[in-house]
């Protein structure tokens, strides 16, 4: 116990937090090992472990297998739940550097789920676009998008590592004006964990989104897998249940 009667693990927790907030321990850096901290603070290892766990619970630290304990990045507040805006535009607005890696762009056939979302018949031709999207060189979200083949000639000629999907759709006279979203929370499988640089079984936010034109033509069906440790979502509701933004 300190003279102020604050338990020692809380004193250590507060001191570590000050060092994180001051930048002494910057984002993504490793803090000293538990054995080093026991020497620094002259306490037992369980006391250090309790202090670290408190900061893990509050989201400031994260334990990584085979690496140690790292300072976590502050979560990115995602506004897309109530604003129709491209990912790049949103990240730029938040002062974060966006990057998109196209993992796949090909012709495919619509599954039952895709056909239902795009008002097609099962087996109809669609485009399948898979993108891994980054902020500050960290993978944030894995997005798989399906679009009706018949409506979008020359769609595959576009470079979606540089071009924004919604801008391309607008140029093709299919501007997205409304979106229907469904949110689930799932555990990351092996492929998703590898791509998003998280542990298998970690929580992910799983969005199903269907984008419509002003004429209510569905032209985009996307499945987005967001890292649970680096994203939070803002929902804006009014008093009219029919206007709820998460449907």
The number of helical runs is 7
CATH architecture of the largest domain: 3-Layer(aba) Sandwich
Whole-number mean pLDDT: 84
Question: How helix-rich are the residues, as a percent range?
Answer: 25-40%
**Can you tell me the CATH topology of the largest domain?**
Chorismate lyase
Spell out the helices and strands N to C.
Answer: HHHEEEHEHEEHEHEEE
The global form is elongated
Uncertain regions: pLDDT < 50 for 5+ in a row?
Answer: 241-247
Amount of beta strand: 25-35%
The profile of the biggest β sheet is:
6 strands, antiparallel
Number of beta-strand segments: 10
Estimated structural class: alpha+beta
**In order across it, which strands form the biggest sheet?**
4-5-6-9-8-7
Gyration radius from CA atoms, angstroms:
22 Å
How far apart are the termini?
Answer: 51 Å
| The named CATH superfamily of the largest domain | Chorismate lyase-like
Give the tally of structural domains.
2
Which class of the largest domain in CATH terms? Alpha Beta
Protein model, in words:
The chain is an alpha+beta fold. It folds into 2 domains: 8-71, Arc Repressor Mutant, subunit A (Orthogonal Bundle), CATH 1.10.10; 76-243, Chorismate lyase (3-Layer(aba) Sandwich), CATH 3.40.1410. 26% of the residues lie in helices and 32% in strands. It contains 7 helices and 10 strands. The chain has helices at 8-22, 34-41, 45-57, 87-93, 112-118, 165-171, 190-196, and strands at residues 61-64, 68-71, 76-78, 98-109, 125-135, 138-148, 178-187, 203-212, 218-227, 231-233. The strands form 3 sheets. The chain has a 6-stranded antiparallel sheet. Strands 1-2 form a two-stranded antiparallel ribbon. It has a two-stranded parallel sheet with strand order 3-10. A hairpin with a 3-residue loop joins strand 1 (61-64) and strand 2 (68-71).
